[in-house]
């Protein structure tokens, strides 16, 4: 019998400014755009790639942002950067760029309290519940990849489900942040884990396929991979498209469609357990983008909704987007077969 893939609807009263304060986001974007041109400015060093979701070579250029071309896959609808920086160039960027340093020193630290309240506690509850339902009870190890929010370990530790707790190549050291014991490790040689998480990481991988396969090698049979990312299927990205102000290279190399994510999981030999879009900010993001850039012309219906209806209508609309996988914030659970 085919398992029905889960989808959820949530509300925590989240506002964009809670997790992406305008001043911090603006500075992070400015540094990212400048550093991208510095690190990846030689076009001859960029690499052509097929669709990172379904591996199709049938695509067309749909827009250009800061000298980089975004293509849309004609097979699955995913949008991705090609040509793109090589794996080695991306590793150098994340190790040495000013934007990466700013992310750790300011962006992650200054939003830690809000992220814990609005995101991390629900992430931990989500992972614990799914693990109880479909996880491998004999594999209790948990790892978070390239940890940016070490507070996740306190939320996970409070559930007393996973042990040991591992931070793999963290961007922000859990020492002095997390109150529970966390081992810092590299990914080489890791195996037999019951659960792995990666929050907002898939979108800037050179190869999401290689990334999912590396994670698979670290999992026990029946182990679970939890990840969040942005999907081009989401309302705000579909409405704003090339005018989306918060999409830039190299943070967003891969904007996989909902359909493409399912195809990618299947290609990498996972069972898809949950694919939900519980985003709460789509309508707010569209409204803010239009206010900050008067040249953005919204479809008449969306403009009417934003101008003439109240907060209850906004939430009802956002709930509809969540229910039907039409928000741009996606969370996914896949299980190693």
In short:
With 337 residues, the chain is of the alpha/beta class. The protein is built from twelve helices and eleven strands.
How are the elements arranged and paired?
Elements: H1 16-19, H2 22-40, E1 59-65, E2 68-73, E3 79-81, H3 87-96, H4 98-110, H5 112-134, E4 142-145, H6 151-159, E5 165-168, E6 183-185, E7 193-199, H7 208-218, E8 219-230, H8 235-240, E9 254-255, H9 258-267, E10 270-276, H10 282-292, H11 300-308, H12 311-323, E11 329-336
Parallel strand pairs: 4-5, 4-7, 5-6, 7-8
Antiparallel strand pairs: 1-2, 2-3, 3-9, 8-11, 10-11
Uncertain ranges: none
| Main sheet record | 7 strands, mixed
User: Proportion of β residues?
Assistant: 15-25%
Query: What is the average of the pLDDT values?
Result: 92
Biggest sheet strand line-up: 6-5-4-7-8-11-10
Tell me the CATH architecture.
3-Layer(aba) Sandwich
Q: What's the CATH first level?
A: Alpha Beta
Q: The CATH topology, please?
A: Rossmann fold
- Counted by DSSP, the helix tally is 12
């Amino acid at each position: 019998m085919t398992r029905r893939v889960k989808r959820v609807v949530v509300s925590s009263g989240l506002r964009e400014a809670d997790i992406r304060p305008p001043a911090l986001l603006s500075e992070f974007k400015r540094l990212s755009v400048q550093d991208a041109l510095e690190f990846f400015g030689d076009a001859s060093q960029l690499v052509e790639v097929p669709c990172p979701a379904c591996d199709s070579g049938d695509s067309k250029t749909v827009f250009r942002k800061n000298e980089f071309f975004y293509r849309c896959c004609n097979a699955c609808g995913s949008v991705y950067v090609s040509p793109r920086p090589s794996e080695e160039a991306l590793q150098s960027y994340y190790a040495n760029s000013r934007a990466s340093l700013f992310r750790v020193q300011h962006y992650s630290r200054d939003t830690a309290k809000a992220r814990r309240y609005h995101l991390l506690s629900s992430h931990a509850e989500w992972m614990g519940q799914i693990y109880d339902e479909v996880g491998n009870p004999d594999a209790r190890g948990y790892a978070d990849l390239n940890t940016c929010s070490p507070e996740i370990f306190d939320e996970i530790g409070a559930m007393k489900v996973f042990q040991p707790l591992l931070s793999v190549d963290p961007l922000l050291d859990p020492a002095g942040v997390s109150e529970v014991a966390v081992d810092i490790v590299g990914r080489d040689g890791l195996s037999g884990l019951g659960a792995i998480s990666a929050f907002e990481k898939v979108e800037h991988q050179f190869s999401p396929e290689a990334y999912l396969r590396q994670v698979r090698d670290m999992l026990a049979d029946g182990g679970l991979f939890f990840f969040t990312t942005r999907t081009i299927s989401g309302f705000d990205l579909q409405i704003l498209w090339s005018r989306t102000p918060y999409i830039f290279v190299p943070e967003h190399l891969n904007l996989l469609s909902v359909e493409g994510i399912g195809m990618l999981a299947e290609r990498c030999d996972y069972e898809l357990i949950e694919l939900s879009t519980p985003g709460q900010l789509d309508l707010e993001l569209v409204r803010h983008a239009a206010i900050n850039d008067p040249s953005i012309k919204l479809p008449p219906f969306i403009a009417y909704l934003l101008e003439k209806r109240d907060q209850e209508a906004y939430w009802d609309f956002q709930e509809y987007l969540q229910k039907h996988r039409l928000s741009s914030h996606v969370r996914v659970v896949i299980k190693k077969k």
